[in-house]
Amino acid sequence: MSEKKADKKPKDLIRPLEHLKGEKPPAPGWFEKAVAAPSEEGAVTVGGARIRFSAWGEPDRRGLLFVHGGRAHRNWWRPFAPFFAANRRVAALDLSGMGDSDWRDKYSLDLYVDEVFAVIEEAGLASRGRPIVVGHSFGGWVTLAAVEREGEKLGGAVVVDSPLGVPDPHEGYNVVKPDKPGEKAADKRKAHFYDSMEEMIARFRLLPNQPAENLYLVDYIAREGLRRAKPEEGGEGWTWKFDPGDRAGFEIHFERDLLRAARCPLAFIYGEKSMFGQGDGIAHLEEQARGRSPFVVIPDAYHHLMMDQPLAFVSALRTLLSAWPVRFGV
């Protein structure tokens, strides 16, 4: 019996839905109500790519935009967005190359920032003042890039469990360096195809690997992240929505004084057990944030903290937004 548990745990850690074989796990009422909440579906063209978004709440309210992580999609936020729509205009977008948005020949952080501000405008998030942007993981990097470039247009930015590390005293934050500068997406565009939707869901994994107890959330984002293969892709069956070539030539760099010279208020939320909430990088971040930015830790949560502690995440973000940033009048 103990051997069986020991054998099963590593598999569950890597592929938490494998044992369900494509069947939907039971879900609590709050989740079913949230994902069933009606949303407006929209799109805006940015640099030749159609960028999809969903929106909740009335247009004449303060704006809140959610930005998903790498190779994720806007529906990671669908179970949570309705909790903020009673008194805000809320939107979540699919960054290009992910979700239902168009793919590009080449991706850049600057283009992602263009997409963020285009959706803010198209979804009506700035009609009642400067909106707040919340970004998880890769989306947190996009959020910080928006702050660095045009932070004066934002009422605030919340970075959720994004790894930053310690900046080089001369070069700043070299977060992502390209393997081959100038490489195009098509050079790395090799999709994996699966015979059935059930097989894909069973193979779904979170990166980095972590325990996953709320399987209804993991199952939901897995289902929303797959699609039928197109004939021109050279395969049959099912594949993931994201562009497998989206990291070709991709680079992320921030200036050394990113946090001290932020052009709008910043706040940070990290998981207590997240690998990105440990070590010198987080110690540096906390030191930089001290006295300047709220720093919230979600107990018993890993990197994908809204999957681990969904209602604690909602409560923490609600509380943060209700009291911050007071002196900026948001």
Describe the structure.
The chain is α/β, with parallel strands linked by helices and 330 residues long. The strands form 3 sheets. It has an 8-stranded mixed β-sheet, with helices on both faces. It has helices at residues 2-14, 29-36, 109-122, 138-150, 197-203, 215-224, 279-289, 305-308, 310-323, and strands at 40-46, 49-56, 62-67, 88-93, 132-136, 156-160, 173-176, 226-228, 238-240, 252-254, 266-271, 295-298.
Using the coordinates shown, work out and report the CATH topology of the largest domain.
Answer: Rossmann fold
Rg measurement, Å: 19 Å
Uncertain segments = 1-10
Q: What proportion strand?
A: 15-25%
Measured as a percent range, the helix fraction is: 25-40%
**Main beta-sheet strand count, sense and barrel state:** 8 strands, mixed
Overall pLDDT metric: 92
Q: Roughly how many Å apart are the termini?
A: 56 Å
Strand order of the largest sheet: 1-2-4-3-5-6-11-12
Keywords summarizing the entry:
Rossmann fold; two-stranded antiparallel sheet
Topology at a glance:
Blueprint: H1 2-14, H2 29-36, E1 40-46, E2 49-56, E3 62-67, E4 88-93, H3 109-122, E5 132-136, H4 138-150, E6 156-160, E7 173-176, H5 197-203, H6 215-224, E8 226-228, E9 238-240, E10 252-254, E11 266-271, H7 279-289, E12 295-298, H8 305-308, H9 310-323
Helix pairs in contact: 3-4
